[in-house]
Amino acid sequence: MNEPSPPEIIRRATILQALAPVAILVVLLFYNVRQFGSDSLDGSNQIALLLSAAVAASIAIALGASWQKVSGSMVKSISSAMSSILILLLIGALAGTWLISGIVPAMIYYGLQILNPTIFLVAACIVCALVSLATGSSWSTVATVGIALLGIGQALGLQEGVIGGAIISGAYFGDKMSPLSDTTNLAPAMAGTDLFTHIRYMAYTTIPSITIALIIYLIMGFYQDSAGSVDVQGVLIAIDAKFNINGWLFLVPVAVIAMIVKRVPALPALLVGVLLGGLFALIFQPGIVNEISGITDDYAKSGYLGVMQAMYGEVTIVTDHVMVSDLLSAGGMSGMLNTVWLILCAMAFGGAMESGGLLKRIASEVIKLAHSTGSLIASTVVTCGFFNVTASDQYMAIVVPGRMFADTYRERGLKPENLSRTLEDSGTVTSVLVPWNTCGATQASVLGVATLVYAPFAFFNIISPFMTMFYGFMGIKLRYYQPDEIPEQVEAEAA
User: Fold this and answer.
1) Kind and range of the H or E run holding 248
2) How far from 333 is each of 248, 311, 320, 338, CA to CA, in Å?
3) DSSP-H helix ranges across 223-265
4) What is the pLDDT along the chain (495 residues), one digit of tens a residue?
5) Given phi > 0 = left and psi -120 to 50 = alpha, else beta, which region is 467?
6) Distance between CA atoms of 335 and 446, rounded to whole angstroms?
7) What distance in Å separates the CA atoms of residue 36 and residue 198, rounded to the nearest whole number?
8) Does residue 214 contact residue 463 with C-beta atoms inside 8 Å?
9) Cα–Cα distance, 441 to 339 (Å, whole number)
């Protein structure tokens, strides 16, 4: 009979050991951006993450961890991202079928007749906020109305980075405030408060942040130079000549949004959206389907090949208008593979760091610097940002700091809603600003706009962590335990 193996004894890392993989990663990523520019996501950043993961794994083994533990931690980390990867692939397929069915072109067509450059950024942010608030999903919002709004904005002559920033700001405001959002439920669970107390308390910082962002977008709208924009009428004519544009096409996005509102899981909801997009392409756009497949004498075969091509591969609708042809393109599932590769490498790095306790070691040093309430909240913000950069996942950026800081907040008499609000104000919204984070990589891939291009204009996401730190240092809307409310655990520790 085999004796059980003794438990592994992993020595505590020094702060230099813990920081070494992070420092190497930062240097490699910086050099990659300098050398490869926007092409750094095509492979060089993935290699940088793997090399940094190898350094982290070597340090973990040197501290006493077995290879089985290190590799198991990496596999576990990657496994936690599999749902996101499947969603990402379905979003690629959805973009393809919604293009050839005329759904996205119809959104652009009607949107161009309603919006103008002055109000566009504000309108885009508000529309994405409302859809995300109703669905609880920033990813679904960006993948549906976000793509259409990007096309409208480009047709109006606006820069893609500014448009992307407005879309991301609105989508993450709604995601952050919606009771249907997974992160909005996760943050109070980690902190130890209830959902609606968390949402009510979060409104104190979130509403001012989105208000400031909207004011900035409005001011930018007044100064947008529309002289270089294309002839909108020419765009409308080109789209109308190529597609059968009608109101029935909007049944598909309405159905998808309704399913998400009804709490249908994202994967089946998106799959239904993909299939409905393919069906509507067969019904309303037979000419487009034949053009993609290259078959004109057998519509059954043409329909199958055309819809399949839209789901998995690159599709470009050629029109007489050069800009419209550039707008009407999608990469399908294959267009998401670079992002999938990036996510796998990023999660492997996060798992290697976690296996040796390197992430916790760095975070524990941050806690030591938190002497006042303001510095405690600022430390939480910094730690959430750190995990978004190193663990490359917004859930890790909420769960780990939530567990780390919960006792410290209680010991200082702060109610858990202070922590849950800070976790969302920093962990949720900054994830999309990191190019190799699952959120940043996904949104860049879906929109076709590099993370570092839209990030400077995602004002809501930038303002939120600073807003929560400002409230902390100024003592605004901080909730403390009353003497008769102090948890027994805190009383025992004080004694």
Assistant:
1) none
2) 26, 6, 27, 10
3) 232-242, 251-261
4) 455 555 667 788 898 998 899 889 878 877 877 787 667 667 888 898 899 999 999 999 999 999 999 999 999 888 877 877 888 788 889 888 988 999 888 888 887 787 778 889 999 999 888 888 866 778 878 887 888 889 888 888 889 999 999 999 999 998 888 876 778 888 888 788 888 888 889 999 999 999 999 999 999 988 866 544 556 788 888 888 899 999 999 899 889 888 877 878 878 988 999 999 999 999 999 999 999 999 989 999 999 999 999 999 988 888 887 777 777 888 889 888 887 887 788 788 888 988 888 877 877 787 777 788 999 999 999 989 988 888 777 887 887 788 778 878 888 889 999 999 999 999 999 999 998 888 898 899 889 899 999 999 999 999 999 999 999 999 998 989 887 666 554 444 444
5) alpha
6) 9
7) 43
8) no
9) 6
**Other Cβ atoms closer than 10 A to 371:** 9
Distance CA 98, CA 44 (A): 32
CA distance 169 to 450: 15
Closest CA to 379 of 354, 410, 408: 408
Residue 427 CA to residue 335 CA, distance in Å, equals 28
Residue that has been written with the tokens 């909240």 in this structure: 377
**Burial of 320: CB neighbours in 10 Å, binned 0-12, 13-18, 19+:** exposed
Angle in degrees, CA 26, 338, 183, rounded to 5: 70
> How many CB atoms within 10 Å of residue 248?
12
Please state the domain extents for the chain.
Answer: 83-335
